[in-house]
Each structure stands twice: as C-alpha cells, then as structure tokens.
Design goal:
1 helix, little secondary structure
Amino acid sequence: LLLAVDPSGPLVRRLVRGELDLVVCVETDDLPAGLTTQPLLDDPLSVLAPGDAVDVTPAGWGPWVTFPSG
C-alpha cells in the first residue's frame, strides 16, 4: 500500500497516467473522461464566530485559506 498526499489535480493526473490505482479527492467539474466517481460524503462547511463579533456580510469575510489550485 502506497499513500500519496497531494492536491486533487496532481493526484488525478497520476491516476490517469496509471501511477495510482485510486484517488480520494475533492470533486471537480473538470475530471478527465473515463473516470468513475463515487461520492463518499457530503461535508457542509460552517463559519463560526464569537457572539459579540462584528456583523459583516459574506462579501467582507476573509482572507480565506483554500485548497491549492491545480
């Protein structure tokens, strides 16, 4: 068993090249043709703040830490 940790893009590319047998990753809209997907879970995200936090609209939230591109 080999465990490879990387962003979704590089993992999917390695899967397509035959370097990996399966990938667990974040689903994207641009998966290459010929791959079969099986959703594992639906994980809702929430934003938490102290009760006395300043009321700011979603447009003012951030900066965010996000998944790397690619």
